[in-house]
Amino acid sequence: MENYDELEEVIDMEIKKIGVLGAGTMGAGIAQVSVEAGYSVVLIDVVPEILAKAVKGLNKAWARAVEKGKVTVETVGNYNALLISSTDINDFKDVDIVIEAIVENIDIKKKVQKQLGEICKPDTILATNTSALSITEIAAATNRPDKVVGMHFFNPVPVMKLVEVIPGVVTSDDAVQAVLELSKKIGKEPVVAKESPGFIVNRILIPYINEAANVYQEGIASAEEIDKAMKLGAGMPMGPLALADLVGIDIVLAVCEFFVKEFADSKYRPSLAFRQKVRAGHLGKKSGKGFYDYSK
Question: E strands along 120-201, which residues?
């Protein structure tokens, strides 16, 4: 793996305007930290209701920050001036990087990244906020595989400091360095990871969550007791099943299934509890119910 810390700062790939595709929880968070760092941001979602909800949520967060004295009303006005929201993907035509934060489905990501490659400037970097998928496979679907980089943020984006930066097989050092510099400028601490299913965090974290779900499925303890045990006995700040609800049970299930496919190892086989929850539409916090009930 390259030692990217020793690479000289890239001048010709300087990022000034950021595009964020997908206005869900992750996309909205990425847009928020980018705007707060002073970047001009184009936030796009093809579903108007999701886009409107994201913009409303950002303004609500900034209003709370004003109330707490963290920022001024003038600062929030500047944030809104930097943020452009749209449902037209063609509005990415002049951005320097697009950070795609859509559904964790490689076929959909490949289709969208191919489209972005046709819309964006030739030197625009295409980043994907995948939590486990192959950067190389996604990049191969585009007209610029050397400029496709994994940029894995963590939820909630405004709070979590880590960004995993994952080069594909043909990703250029310049593209990686530009993403590392951007990550630092938006207040994150990037870690470069070699492409492998799950990268660093999810390679370790998902099997841990999956085993907790197996303990739950086997009736060994309730969700509350499992989480309490791991917090008090292992020093975890959050229990594994509460964390599954936060991440999204459908996402955890998809990553487990991807691991089984890529590693051909049954140790990654997803818990039946995940499948049952997803079939019931109990995806965690985002649906109002998962291992816990958030509707009350």
Answer: 125-128, 148-153, 162-167, 189-192
